[in-house]
Amino acid sequence: MRWFPPRRGRRTGRPDAVGRPPVPTPEELAAALEAIRERIAGRVPPSVQARVERIVTTVHRTLPRLDELGPGSQQAHAVMATVTSYLPDALDAYLRLPRSFADRRPVSAGRTALVLLCEQLDLLAQVTDELFEATCRSDVRALQAHGRFLAEKFGRDPG
Amino acid sequence: MPQTPGRPQPPTGAESPAALEPPQPPPAVNPAQAHGLAPAVGAQKVPELDRRVESLVEDLVGAPAVSPDLAARTEEVRTMGDADIRRAAETSNRLLRTPVKALHSGALTPGSKVSQTLLHLRRTVEDLDPKAVAGRGRRPGLRPVGRRITDYFRRFHSAQSHLDAVLYALHDGQDELRRDNATLAEEKQQLWDTMAVLNQHVYVVERLDRRLSQEIDRIGERDPEHARHLREDVLFYVRQKHQDLLTQLAVSIQNYLALDVMIKNNLELVKGVDRASTTTVAALRTAVIAAQALNNQQLVLDQITALNTTTSQMIESTSQMLRDNSARIQQQATAASVELRNLQAAFQNIYLTMDAIDTFRTQALDTMTATVNTLRQEVDRSREYLERARGQAGTDGAAATGAAHRPVPPR
Predict the structure, then answer these.
(1) Which of B123, B163, B172 sits opposite A71 (nearest CB)?
(2) A25-70 pLDDT, tens per residue?
(3) Which of B245, B254, B244, B250 is nearest to B388 (CA)?
(4) Is B396 helix (H, G, I), strand (E, B) or coil?
(5) How far from each other are the two terminal CA atoms of chain B, in whole angstroms?
(6) Do A85 and B175 count as a contact with CB atoms less than 8 A apart?
(7) B396/B246 Cα distance (integer angstroms)
(8) Which residues of B touch A10 (CB under 8 A)?
């Protein structure tokens, strides 16, 4: 749902009056996703690599549809913040630890840092999946409404 | 999380629904009550601790006076829990910095990211306030009203990226508050563990005191000299140790309660920012509806005006139509003012929310100041006491007021 018709250059990346960082542009987000991939290449076990790849793929699919969530949407913020902070912060904390310590030493209730990271990545994967579905919802509803309209107009079910 | 007895419950109903509730400042924790407020010794631990006490008592009482054995046991009592006390004291000093920092540069202060963003939101919203538009113009067919309305919604349109950025920054701000709370929760857990260890020592020392006193009384009947040695050289240290432990435990509890206050403040602020965000989005939504409704009316007004310029032959029918239409125009003008009134109400909600946040911030800062002052006093007092107790006999004479608050274990 759009509030007012989208203006060209709506997300121009211009800082607002207070000089605070504005909403990240689609280009910035795409670059950030690529940077995440590069950051972990060859530095993490396959279990982490696979999980990150899954999240990045889902977010890639979600980004072009963020407008569906409306302006100021908390969900849209969550998608963008996943790219700019939630995902990189989790990975950076893991990468700062020496690899053997992180992967083998139990640090929290018998779990290693690697296990903690994988748990967080699983949570992010689940959340990003849900956020992607949220961006599809309005189109799904439009399709359902169209089906109802066709059925009513022609007096029979399209299905 | 279990409810804590005796804590003041937030008032209900009377205040505005937008009001935010800052937590009460915790009173000074009395060392005498520290044992009861700290995490209780687990039932499974008790037999082991009791055995330790009995073994100590046996050795202390059984050893001949002025013997290396007695000296060794006495030293054991004198240094019992010292490492844990020192660790707890270091933690207290470190944790004192946390609320002090929050007081000077935390989220509640005017310079914080959250505060600045809310200020920016207020300014943006004030710029978009429809009150100037809705003020006049109930007379039907008056073009300038329509133009004012069009201009107003154009301003809205161009402020959109502004609002986007502000709302995004508000969500960022909430994230910071939540991250802060996660760190504070970790520190609370550490403190809780420290308090549990100290409280175990307290249990041991209190039991040791009771058992030793019993034995000293018994021995005193046949050997007063031995009893005197035990009283002056052993029981004295036991009691000093007891006081050391309770003093440090009280400070740790005070720390714990201060962290609790900070966590609750952050949660209230998250709630406030949520409301600021949703009321702003609601006002945007209302503006869209108003714009659509008023744009349609704008079109109708235009058509009627155009009708006014038809030929004289149409004047009759036109004036008839005008008479009919003037009622409609009146309705539409009223509807316009209704739409704008709705919009004004939506804006009013935003102001109410932001005012509530400002009120909360002021109250919460006062609470934090009181909390920090109490904590600082307690830490200073305990530090003084512990330094004095190291070098000589002495007890801390100052008694603090009773504690109505009790620390709740972290989830």
Answers:
(1) B163
(2) 889 999 999 999 999 999 999 999 999 999 999 999 999 998 888 7
(3) B244
(4) coil
(5) 7
(6) yes
(7) 11
(8) 160-161, 164
